[in-house]
Queue: 2 jobs
Job 1
Amino acid sequence: MYIGIDLGGTNIAAGLVTDKGEIMAKASVPTNSGRPTEEIVRDMAELSKQLITENDLSIDDIEAVGIGCPGTIDYKTGEVVYCNNIKMDHFPLSDVFRKHLDLPVRVDNDANCAALGEYKINGGGASSYLLITLGTGVGGGLILNGRLHRGFNGVAAEPGHITLVSGGERCTCGKEGCWECYASATALVRDTKRAMEKAPDSLMHKVAANAGKVGGKTAFDAAEMGDSAAKQVVDNYIRYVADGIVSCANFVQPEITAIGGGVSKQGESLIAPIREYVYRYEYNKHMPKMKVEAASLGNDAGIIGAAMLCMEE
Amino acid sequence: MYIGIDLGGTNIAAGLVTDKGEIMAKASVPTNSGRPTEEIVRDMAELSKQLITENDLSIDDIEAVGIGCPGTIDYKTGEVVYCNNIKMDHFPLSDVFRKHLDLPVRVDNDANCAALGEYKINGGGASSYLLITLGTGVGGGLILNGRLHRGFNGVAAEPGHITLVSGGERCTCGKEGCWECYASATALVRDTKRAMEKAPDSLMHKVAANAGKVGGKTAFDAAEMGDSAAKQVVDNYIRYVADGIVSCANFVQPEITAIGGGVSKQGESLIAPIREYVYRYEYNKHMPKMKVEAASLGNDAGIIGAAMLCMEE
């Protein structure tokens, strides 16, 4: 049995995970990310101990602990090189955790963990797999030859920061025109608001008023009701998402690309037109096409994938 | 000893290549690409035999023949699935070649071969390597873990067709806004001509008149003479090239990115500002940076890399 921990800005989520990637039990506590990081790590260890005892296990039943953490991780040493939303700067996360719970610990980037989790459960033995998560930003992870691809320096697979519109919208990373400035839920809401300003008669205003806010669903819902301004927002958004996936396909040709994150709850009404666009415009016209599908594990992906880190050789 | 053949639209170039990647002898004949492909393949074999006899070798001295070919290649079978500039459609290149010269034959995409050649000679044992060639289009090849990365379907590493400006210039591939529509020599000449139209007093007109044409050097030469319109063309071009390299870095983090093709003859005056832009804008701010350098083998890369195909297990 393994423990997988997904350290998020809001919650610490942990699970008991079998070597097949099955979650046997889960628990979570608030991160309270403003407090000293040592306290957060102590709570991560306490949560792990709670999972062990509440499930009638002992520490000896646990092979290892995997931790998915936001930011720049040195996966070889378990050090958090830099994390912005939970303040860490060259913080030896693995070592500090082991002071509280002395088990082998593996640490990697949270998006890498999510990709590894989705791959192990839904990859069906594919040789390569790309997870793209459409959320506040655009994140993801890349599996090549059955293993996480980390690049020579450990920090590859930041698909949200490939260029989609050179010289376009300013990204939080400092560059202009990153994919996440167009394909994130944040970007979708921004573009929805811009379209609403230009179209005072659009059904988007009614949809947003009913929901109490402009959200990622606003344009999709109004488009389904036949609103043309909303349909334009949706069409543009689908093209932005798909154009970035075409980039990934033309460069790396993963066997499966899975789309996760809140927006992906739109299901096939989002995935089908993306797939159609990708198949039409990818450079490969003569060889088998990569699969384009929805991710399915949601928040569990990070827990499972963190545990799966421990099984990498 | 190996034979490496670079089958180009204009010339068939072949070389005797040692297992260290050293070219011992070279020869070439015109491709005459309009004629039946069987004839072209016969000439490839004749050229190989000529190399063998003119260098006092026998067929027994040759381990294998590697062929770099444009288009979509099934590298597992040696079939050219599709090639546009030398007409081939499901053409069994490997089998047809062996009818004329019965040696083990490996075939792969010409850009993959060039990347493998540059990597073997100039990669210095790096774990990963990306070659980007700036020519008529933007081509390239990707080495990961010391091997060509071909994707699940054999046709990965088409970096020229990652998206640089979603919805931008129309590409020959059918998509809009591909990197090669902005970073190829063809695009540079187009943008130079556009800038010249808008700036009748620009020194670019004089430079082009002296050279007898508007070329890839026109804007660079005029910019060096202090021409502001030319400098704008060069600055934009550098940003286009660099923005695409940032995409490759953020997605895959190769240890070395090498820039080849005719435009790269500008040397450090082109490479240095690209490197500076990439280092400034890549997402990775905390871990080692990939090297950005000029490729150096020119046309020999394809011959060497084709031979090196034969040494892959």
Job 2
Amino acid sequence: MREPKAFFFDIFGTIVDWREGVAREARAVLHPLGHDMVWTAFADAWRGQYQAGMEEIRSGRQPFSKLDVVHARNLERILGDFGLSDISDETKRQLVLAWHRLDAWPDVARGLSILRKHGLLAPVSNGNFSLMAALARRNNFHWDAILGAEYARDYKPKAGVYLSACEAFDLTPGECMMVAAHSDDLKAAAECGLMTGFVARPNEKGPGKGESEPRIPVDAAGDDLFELATKLFR
Amino acid sequence: MREPKAFFFDIFGTIVDWREGVAREARAVLHPLGHDMVWTAFADAWRGQYQAGMEEIRSGRQPFSKLDVVHARNLERILGDFGLSDISDETKRQLVLAWHRLDAWPDVARGLSILRKHGLLAPVSNGNFSLMAALARRNNFHWDAILGAEYARDYKPKAGVYLSACEAFDLTPGECMMVAAHSDDLKAAAECGLMTGFVARPNEKGPGKGESEPRIPVDAAGDDLFELATKLFR
């Protein structure tokens, strides 16, 4: 394997823990208003609308909207199930911003610190620029650029998202590695010619409900991002 | 004046010294091949093609190309004047990369360090992502995102470049400040509703040939970026 010149990162699940973060932030917004629920179930239900919401755009049925807008649309679909049909527009806006306030998994800082010595680093996420910038400030990520869906005006796993990221850095796909905790993301990247780095996040969707092993052949794999980085550059 | 939530930066001339840098890097490429010339005159001639090269794209006569491509086209126009008609494609490629190897003015690190405590920071330059990322690595800039021409697929001073930057950060134009050493850049930003911060770079184009004072009303002005930052947040 050649040494990658750039590392592209999936963010939700791979770099940050969306489930516990959305649950915590939703509670912070809704509990003072008198709502109570299993907050992780709310996070799971919201995330459960994720692919369907983006598929409207990937298929061309709707024009591109940034992920905050998709999150807001998806939120509308689950409000009734959680007794939230009457919340205000401002409360909905605060809930959408829950996705801007997620925390990195504990190994991420050390992993990125190693990878940064070896190549360019950029999120290639479905998250929009403002969301990526907010997560970076919160977690002190130092990206070389934000790339991904909003830059490409389409959503992963469409090829244009991966290829536009390579082109932005003047690199061929074979010079770049996509890093993700999701086999479908890595499969799409590999089909575009990128190298693939799998990070296990076995508890991403709840205890034991994430991927602990890749379901496809990958160029490198680690039990977390720090292990992946040390395997690549030991 | 409200406190800006984001600061957008012109890069060539405002943040980095393109003239001395291009002269130095062109010499490093061409002198070993036996060429000699007044290297700052070469830099000035190349930069002299800058607006005409972008105007082809702003006018719609040519589709968007990243600035590296515009720089390469502009280089072709001046090679003959400097006895360089016979240089190889690889030498031309190395010359284009001179623009990736420019140094910040000495006040920039301190200025950005102050501004970063008060808002999001992004280049809103005509330079492409790979060029902006290379300058950031070289000079240790910590941007929240790279925005500007390549993101907007058009060149300043077209309104879409400024407005797309505000939208990327979910901000209104009135919440953002454009920082530049060029009155025409600030004039266009102000017409879009952005606040304006002028930085004097009196020697940008050679001794005394830069702007030492803005030619239009601005919201803030400094003799350098550090002074601008301290005036805003004293």
